[in-house]
Write a structure and sequence with these properties.
The structure is a single chain. With 94 residues, the chain is mostly helical. It has helices at 9-22, 26-36, 40-58, 64-88. The relative contact order is 0.05. The model has no long low-confidence stretch (mean pLDDT 92).
């Protein structure tokens, strides 16, 4: 079943340009994004599997505090990377 997703014209034009550059359609581009992006539930399941693996293979148990500290570190690194890209004038997609 088809549906319509409402976005502003700037977003629509950007998606169209990305799709054209990849030789695909906006539909296929969004399908690819949806297939490649994890839902919050999938992220939690992955985190649980990772915790179980670390404990089983290395005897290391991550506490909730450890997990939050790692998450904060990753968010800070991502923010710094995005800022560096903006400051250099490069695109985040690069």
């Amino acid at each position: 079943m088809d549906t319509t997703i409402k976005v502003d014209s700037k977003t629509r034009d950007r998606l169209a340009a990305i799709a054209r550059a990849r030789g695909t359609t906006m539909r296929a581009l969004l399908d690819e994004y949806a297939a490649a992006t994890l839902t919050p539930q999938e992220l939690q399941e992955r985190a649980n599997r990772t915790r179980a693996f670390l404990e089983a293979e290395f005897g290391h148990r991550l506490s909730d505090q450890d997990t939050e500290a790692l998450r904060d570190t990753m968010r800070a690194a991502q923010a710094a990377h995005r800022k560096a890209l903006r400051d250099s004038g490069a695109s985040e997609a690069a």
